[in-house]
C-alpha cells in the first residue's frame, strides 16, 4: 500500500520512540514477502509497530475493510471477491487466541488475492506457508529511558527527569526489561513517586513474583511483574474496579461502568473517582469519538484483571450484570430509533457492538439464558436491517433460534426479525419458514403484535417477488392490525411505504403518493430519517413518472444521502438505479452507464439484483436500453466498467454530483439529431421493462 494511501488504523496520540531499525526491517520484509508476522511477548510493542469469538473472525476482517454485505454468502467469499483485484495491506493484531481461525483465513485470502499483503502481530507465529517472522525484542535501555521520560512529562507536565535521576531511570527500565507496556505503566506512577522510590518497590515485587513461577520466561515475568506491581500499588477499591472492568469488550462509557461494576466494596458514587485513579496510572485509557467520551484497557491489562475476577469467583455475576446493562441499552435504542435521536442511536450501537456481541454470547452459552439471547438479537433488528449488518444479524438470529427458549414472545420476535432479514437477503425459503412459524405461534399464543409483524413481512416478500395483488392484501391487513393495537414505529411506516410501492407498481400513483406524503409528515414529526429515505424514493419515482425531473432528482438525492448515512446498502443501490435513469433522461447516457456500473458492483453485497423483480428492474432495463442505443455497446460497456471501479463513497458522491466526474467516461451531453439519449420523462410506466 502506498504511504500516501489512506487506511483505517487508529491515530496515535503520543510519540513513537525507538524502533528505527525494526521499522526498516519490517519495510524490507513487506517488500519481499506477502505475509509478515511480528512476534513478541505481550506489551513489547507489536501493536504500535504494526498498527473475538472465532466464529466472528471473518466478520471482523470484513468490518475492518468497511465491507457491508446483506447476502447469505459466507463472509470469506465476500472477502475473496473484494480483495481479488486490489492492492492492500491488511493488519491483523492480537490473533494468538484465534490462530486456528485466522491462519486458514489469511492463507486463503493470500492465495486468491495477488495484491494483498498481510502484517500480523501476535505472541506466536501463524505457522502458515510463506510466513516471514520478525521477532520483536524489548527496547534498548536508552530508548526505554527516552520513552519513560516522554510519558512521564505527558502524565505530569512539571515532571523533569534530569541528569540527577538518569541512573535511576535507566536502572528502572533495565529492571522492566525494556518492555514498553511496563515502562508506560511505570511512567504513570511518577505522578506520586520518584524513580528511586519506584525502584525500591519494584525490587519487592520482582522477588515475590519471579519466585512463584520459575517456568515463565524472564521477559514474561518482567511484564507480569510490571502489571502486578502496578496492581499492588493500587488501593483495594482500584484493584476491585480493575478486575470488574475486565468484563467489558472493547470500549465502554462511564454510565456502563457505574452500573456493571458498582456493588459490594465499591459504591456507585465512588466509581468516577476510582476510575480517574486508574486513568492516572495508565491502567485505563480515555478516548473521544462520535459516541462521546469512552474508555478502554489494553488486552494484557484486561486479562490480568480477568484473572483476579476469576479468582474471586465473581465472573458469572459480573457478566450477567454486563448483559443486563446492554440488554437495557438495546431496548432503549430500539425505542429511540423512532425519534430525532435516530442517527445518534446508530452511532452508539456501532460503538457498543463489541459489548453487545459479548452480551449475546453470554446469553447463548449460559444455561437458561437462551430466551434473553432471542430477545436481544430481535431487539437489534434496526441495526441489522437499518445499518447494513444483515449478515451478522442472521448469524446471531440463527444461533438464538437454534436454542430452546421458555419465553414465547422473545422467540416470536426473533422469528419475524429473522424473516425480515432473510427477505432482504433474497433467501425466500428461510424467510417463509421463519415467518410461517411466527404466524402460527402468534395465533397459538394469542399475540396480536407478532401476528401483525409476521403478516407484514410475508407481504413484503410478496412485493419483492412481484405478487402485487397478494402483497397489497397482506400489507393492508398488517397495517390495519398495527392500527388496532396502537403500534407506530419505523416498521409500521415501512409497511406503509411498501404498500405505496405495490400501488405504484400497479399504476395507482395518486394513492402511492398520498401514502408516502403521510409517512413523510409522520417522519418529520418524530425525527425519523431511515424510513423517510424509502418514502422519498417512492415520491421521486412518482415525480419522474409524472414528468417532473428536477423534483424527482431532488427527492432521490435526499433519499440516497440518508441511505448512505445509515450504511443501508439496499436503499443506496435502489436510489442509484433510479438516479442513473434520471441522468440518462437529462441527456448524459455515458454518466448513466457509469452509475449503472457502480450499482452493479454493489448488488452482489445486497442480494439478487433488483430482487429479480420486473417491477423493481423496470427503470434499470429502460435506462440500459437507451444508454446502449445512444453510446453503442462498446462505449456503454466501457462506462459500466468505469462505474464498477468506483468505491461506494465515490459512487454516492458522483450520483449526488458532489464529487469529481471522470471526464474520460463522458461524451458531449447532446448531439444534433439524437435528442440526447432519446429518453423522455414519463416514458417509463410502473412495472415496465425495456
TrEMBL record:
Annotated SUPFAM superfamilies: P-loop containing nucleoside triphosphate hydrolases, TPR-like
GO molecular function: identical protein binding
UniProt biased composition (Basic and acidic residues): 663-683
Annotated transmembrane regions: none
Domain Winged helix-turn-helix: 239-309
InterPro entries given in the database record: HTH_77, P-loop_NTPase, TPR-4, TPR-like_helical_dom_sf
Disordered as annotated region, ranges: 656-690
Name listed for the protein in its UniProt record: Tetratricopeptide repeat protein
Amino acid at each position: 500500500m502506498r504511504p500516501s494511501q489512506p487506511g483505517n488504523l487508529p491515530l496515535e496520540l503520543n510519540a513513537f520512540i525507538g524502533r528505527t531499525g525494526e521499522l526498516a526491517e519490517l519495510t524490507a520484509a513487506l517488500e519481499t514477502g506477502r505475509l509478515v508476522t511480528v512476534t513478541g511477548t505481550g506489551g513489547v510493542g507489536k501493536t504500535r509497530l504494526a498498527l473475538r469469538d472465532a466464529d466472528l473472525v471473518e466478520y471482523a476482517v470484513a468490518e475492518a475493510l468497511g465491507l457491508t454485505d446483506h447476502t447469505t454468502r459466507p463472509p470469506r467469499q465476500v472477502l475473496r471477491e473484494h480483495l481479488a483485484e486490489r492492492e492492500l495491506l491488511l493488519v491483523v493484531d492480537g490473533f494468538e487466541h484465534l490462530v486456528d481461525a485466522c491462519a486458514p483465513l489469511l492463507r486463503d485470502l493470500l492465495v486468491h488475492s495477488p495484491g494483498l499483503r498481510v502484517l500480523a502481530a501476535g505472541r506466536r507465529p501463524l505457522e502458515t506457508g510463506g510466513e516471514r517472522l520478525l521477532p520483536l525484542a524489548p527496547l534498548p535501555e536508552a530508548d526505554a529511558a527516552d520513552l519513560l521520560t516522554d510519558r512521564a512529562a505527558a502524565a505530569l507536565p512539571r515532571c523533569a527527569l534530569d541528569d540527577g535521576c538518569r541512573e535511576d531511570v535507566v536502572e528502572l527500565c533495565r529492571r522492566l526489561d525494556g518492555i514498553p507496556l511496563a515502562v508506560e505503566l511505570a511512567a504513570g506512577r511518577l505522578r506520586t513517586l520518584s524513580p528511586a522510590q519506584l525502584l525500591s518497590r519494584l525490587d519487592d515485587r520482582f522477588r515475590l513474583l519471579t519466585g512463584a513461577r520459575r517456568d515463565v520466561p524472564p521477559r514474561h515475568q518482567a511484564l507480569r511483574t510490571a502489571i502486578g506491581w502496578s496492581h499492588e500499588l493500587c488501593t483495594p477499591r482500584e484493584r476491585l474496579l480493575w478486575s470488574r472492568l475486565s468484563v467489558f469488550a472493547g470500549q465502554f462509557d462511564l454510565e456502563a461502568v457505574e452500573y456493571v461494576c458498582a456493588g459490594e466494596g465499591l459504591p456507585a458514587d465512588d466509581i468516577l473517582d476510582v476510575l480517574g485513579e486508574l486513568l492516572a496510572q495508565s491502567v485505563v485509557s480515555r478516548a473521544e469519538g462520535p459516541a462521546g467520551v469512552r474508555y478502554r484497557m489494553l488486552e494484557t491489562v484486561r486479562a490480568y484483571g480477568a484473572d483476579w475476577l476469576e479468582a474471586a469467583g465473581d465472573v458469572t455475576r459480573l457478566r450477567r450484570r454486563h448483559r443486563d446493562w446492554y440488554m437495557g441499552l438495546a431496548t432503549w435504542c430500539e425505542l429511540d430509533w423512532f425519534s430525532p435521536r435516530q442517527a445518534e442511536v446508530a452511532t452508539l450501537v456501532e460503538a457498543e457492538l463489541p459489548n453487545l456481541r459479548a452480551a449475546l454470547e453470554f446469553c447463548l452459552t449460559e444455561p437458561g439464558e437462551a430466551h434473553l439471547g432471542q430477545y436481544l438479537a430481535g431487539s437489534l433488528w434496526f441495526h441489522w436491517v437499518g445499518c447494513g449488518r444483515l449478515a451478522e444479524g442472521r448469524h446471531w438470529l440463527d444461533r438464538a433460534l437454534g436454542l430452546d427458549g421458555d419465553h414465547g414472545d422473545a422467540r416470536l420476535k426473533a422469528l419475524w426479525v429473522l424473516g425480515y432479514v432473510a427477505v432482504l437477503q433474497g433467501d425466500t425459503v428461510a424467510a417463509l419458514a421463519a415467518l410461517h412459524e411466527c404466524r402460527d405461534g402468534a395465533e397459538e399464543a394469542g399475540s396480536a403484535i407478532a401476528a401483525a409483524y409476521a403478516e407484514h413481512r410475508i407481504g413484503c416478500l410478496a412485493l419483492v417477488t412481484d405478487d402485487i395483488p397478494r402483497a397489497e392484501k397482506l400489507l393492508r391487513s398488517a397495517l390495519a392490525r398495527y392500527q388496532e393495537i396502537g403500534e407506530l414505529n419505523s416498521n409500521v411506516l415501512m409497511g406503509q411505504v411498501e404498500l405505496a410501492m405495490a400501488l405504484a407498481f400497479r399504476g395507482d400513483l395518486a394513492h402511492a403518493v398520498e401514502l408516502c406524503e403521510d409517512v413523510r409528515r409522520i417522519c418529520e414529526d418524530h425525527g425519523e430519517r431511515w424510513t423517510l429515505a424509502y418514502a422519498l424514493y417512492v415520491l421521486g419515482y412518482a415525480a419522474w413518472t409524472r414528468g417532473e425531473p428536477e423534483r424527482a432528482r431532488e427527492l432521490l438525492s435526499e433519499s440516497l444521502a440518508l441511505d448512505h448515512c445509515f450504511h443501508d446498502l439496499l436503499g443506496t443501490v435502489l436510489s442509484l438505479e433510479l438516479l442513473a435513469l434520471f441522468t440518462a433522461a437529462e441527456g448524459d447516457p455515458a454518466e448513466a452507464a457509469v452509475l449503472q456500473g457502480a450499482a452493479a458492483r454493489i448488488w452482489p453485497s445486497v442480494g439478487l439484483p433488483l430482487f429479480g423483480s420486473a417491477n423493481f428492474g423496470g427503470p434499470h432495463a429502460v435506462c440500459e436500453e437507451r444508454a446502449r442505443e445512444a453510446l453503442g455497446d462498446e462505449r456503454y460497456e466501457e462506462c459500466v466498467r468505469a462505474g464498477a471501479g468506483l468505491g461506494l463513497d465515490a459512487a454516492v458522491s458522483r450520483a449526488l454530483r458532489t464529487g469529481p466526474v471522470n471526464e474520460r467516461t463522458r461524451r458531449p451531453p447532446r448531439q444534433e439529431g439524437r435528442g440526447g439519449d432519446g429518453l423522455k420523462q414519463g416514458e417509463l410506466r410502473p412495472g415496465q421493462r425495456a
